[in-house]
Amino acid sequence: MFDDLIQKLDGAIRAIRNTGKLNEKNIGEALRGIQRALLEADVHFKVVKEFISAVREKAVGTEVTRSVSPGQQVVKVVHDELVRLLGHAHVPIAFSGIPPSVILIVGLQGSGKTTFAAKLGALLRKSGRDPMLVAADIYRPAAIKQLATLGKGINLPVFEKGTLKPVLICKAAVEEARKQGKDTLIVDTAGRLHIDDAMMAELEALKSALHPSEILYVADGMTGQDAVKSAQAFLDRLDFNGIVLTKMDGDSRGGAALSIRAVTGRPIKFISNGEKTDAVEPFHPERMASRILGMGDVVTLVEKAQEAVDHEQAEKLAKKLRKESFTLDDFYDQLQQVKKMGPMDQVLSMLPGAGRMMKQVQPDEKGMARVEAMIHSMTREERRKPHLINGSRRKRIASGSGTTVQDVNRLLKQFQMMQKMIRQMGRMNTRGMMNKMPFSF
Q: Parallel, antiparallel, or unpaired: how do β-strands 280-282 and 268-272 relate?
């Protein structure tokens, strides 16, 4: 997410970051680099112009705090302006006082509306809501089936009435939600490859009939300024409440995220960064600004870790570590919890300095898969007692996992190093020890 923009912004402000004295020349050079990085990221030129002007004014006119260098002060000004550009603070979904609250998902075809509808349903259920999905896209082939499949995968009910008119489908869905005691309806509406009057008239009719508490415009994060133009057209006709940016895990230059809020005046409420139903997160401008400037996003990282960690399993592991009985089974369990946090490149991108780090070290997802395959190819006894794995067993494990004997040797050697570390730290508090253990793939 924003990898190219992060690297270019880092290059633009690196020279000024540790500058002891500011002048018009070095401020100007830094701002030209920032301007170039934003334009290459496909940020709207008017947004870039206003952004650079605001940063220049505040950087030149601000008093430098004695505890930080002037260069760091400029970085703070850039960060604060990014936060302002992205919307100051997170804006949560609004729910109506009388259930069910209706959330209308709108946008162009191919923007990811259907997948996001399911993701939002899963996210709201985690927060204590009881949602139902509504299949109101009767035009796109297999749209209804796609939503039904997604709903089944996350155990959420999907209301559908085939190719009945969308307004009638949604009115029936409201009645059914009341019967079942559902408090939220998430309506997946039809899109088009381009904006047309027929589509907009249908959405206006849905808005008039359902009185939704939220209308969320879904924008494809890979389309740059085209997403901004479409958003403005939807805003003019529907006056939507918030924006969702999808496909942020792809080759996104970031222009949509940095332009769409400024142009429409509507808050970005969610970002979606993968195909899995849990690959969505609420949008926090301050956290995103920090991520864009390579400062990481530790708060979101901690939240993801808290969701992924099985606390009962963590307690059992702590006891095992104290008894120095850590096995390959235990390591495998820890690996699964790390994977729940998402792809490793996304997890690492939340660490401070991620932009520079990702240039040097590319996370090896295939390496993690090889480790899993090797552990799966071991017998239960071998996983509990790795010292039993002799030469012939190593050949069998390599053959069964599609790896080499050298790969198995490397895994066992690294595991032995971990066990040695555990013995050395046996008397220390073991909580959080796994976070400190080096294990390369």
A: antiparallel
